[in-house]
Amino acid sequence: MVVNQEQKREKTHDNQQQRAAPLGIRIFESLFPGRWYGHAVLASCIPIFLSANPGQSFFLGLYTEYLVQDFGVSRETVSALFFFSLAGSSVYLQLIGRVVDRIGTRATVKLGLLPFCMSLLVMSQSRNFYLTCLSYVGMRMLGPETVAFSAMVTVNRWFRKLRGRAAAGLQIALALQLQLAAVVNVLMQQYGWREVTMLCTLVVLLLDLPALLFLQNSPEEVGLLPDGLKHEGDSLEEAEGGKEEEREINFTFWEAIRTYQCWFIIAVAFTLGSGWGGMNVHLQAFCAERGMLPSSTSLIYSAVGLFVPAGAVITGGLLDGVSNNNDKLRRCSVIIAIFMSNSAMAFSFGVFTGLFVGGNQVMGITIFASLYGRAHVGSMQALLAAAGLLGVAIGPVFFAITHSVWKSFNPILIATASTQLFLCAMFFFIAAPRKEGGGCDEGNPGDNAHPLAEKDELDGV
User: Fold this and answer.
1) Chain centroid offset of residue 324 CA
2) Which of 202, 217, 232 marks a domain boundary?
3) How many domains, the chain?
4) Which pTM does this prediction carry?
5) Is 424 exposed, middle or buried (0-12, 13-18, 19+ CB in 10 A)?
6) Secondary structure (3-state) at 243
7) Which helix (H) or strand (E) holds 192?
8) Which of 245, 241, 215, 243 lies closest to 232 in space, CA to CA?
9) Which residues pair with 237 in a beta bridge?
10) Its topology with respect to the membrane (predicted)?
């Protein structure tokens, strides 16, 4: 009788826990009993990341001609607006990184979703240029730097040993974004840019609202562990061979930025961003300099979009298994660009660039969480993303100045390739950072999703 009562109490307790679980978890467990919920979280991050497409640089570039025609402004003015949106976003990221660490990724997406949609609506309806500029900047800050950024941090918190492959899954969204930009361009030409922008608002809501149902800040917050582990002790053993792995060491923000590895990675992000930004903005002029057809740019972007997932999957597997050779891919693409003079070389450039973009995205998403832990990854990831954004914003200026002085893009391409060669060599001499005192802060990343968690530490950042 006593045993039956005990079993009844345990069953009642389990039922109460199940009812207390978030709705998304209850739906997932009813559809896929026994499966790890992290798969649902990753699946929810993909549409959230995709929904930030209207704020991506290649999407914002579609508005240039329409803003010039509708408002009678110069292309230099629109270029300055583009630069300000990226440079301003790099500063804004430092705020949003702290917000993500303080309130969690799910709350951050909720906080940014409505203003993001409002920016799209204002962009589609405004006849005032200054209001349009405000919405233009808002699309960048609230899309990639709020919504998509939260998705990236979520992946870092839910995955540890499988982080590279999980981040590669996010690049499905990036590949779709590159292809959708071409589709949106055609729709804007046929139906008008304002109408298509309004349609984008509806698409963002249709993607994000269902995904938010399944998005959770961290596995610890809902009583789970990263990578689908059942017990805390399991994290000490690798799945194959039974080899021991060090416990996760979580650096604070200030501890991380006091390491030289942090600033080396930031310098790499800036350099990669400036090279990609310069090539991206001046690609048409670059092809024309070599006497290539205007269709060559479409060929390049098609190849980039096709090979982004391949670069992401390869890099994700290497990060989870061995090491990363991402910088070599970037160097190869720039070297090919120096000699590019026909469609075959243009396609080859697109292939290597696609592999680089996919690999670079995975590397950028995962490297700080892998080196410094998951607990404060929001603030640290924001710093890295800001460096890349500044590079993308400043890169076109470097390319333009070089071209005006030497009347050719070759000098800046050679300098970029040489820099990547140097950085690639330096990676072999960079050791993993060590926490001061050798301590092991195993802070629960889920704890940081609460406004009161680790308040003193965050206030000191």
Assistant:
1) 18
2) 217
3) 2
4) 0.77
5) middle
6) coil
7) none
8) 245
9) 244
10) Multi-pass membrane protein
276 with 333, same domain: the answer is yes
For residue 69, count other CB atoms closer than 10 A to its CB: 10
- What is the DSSP track for 300-344? HHHHHHHHHHHHHHHHHHHHHHS---HHHHHHHHHHHHHH--SHH
Whose tokens are 């890295």? That residue is: 384
Burial of 205 (0-12, 13-18, 19+ CB in 10 A): middle
* Token pair of 150 as six digits: 């939260």
As given in the structure block, the two tokens for residue 203 are 């698409």
Q: What is the distance between the alpha carbons of residues 190 and 186, in angstroms, rounded to a whole number? A: 6
> Would you place residue 319 in the very low, low, confident or very high pLDDT band (cuts 50, 70, 90)?
low
428 is a domain residue:
yes
Query: Domain check: are 302 and 197 in the same one?
Result: no
For residue 9, is it within any domain?
no
Per-residue confidence (pLDDT) for residue 5, from 0 to 100: 52
Token look-up 């298994």 returns 321
Largest CA distance in the chain: 92
Which residue type does 396 have?
P
Which domain does 353 fall in, by range? Answer: 249-436
Alpha carbon distances (Å) from 191 to 81, 187, 188, 197, 431: 25, 6, 5, 10, 54
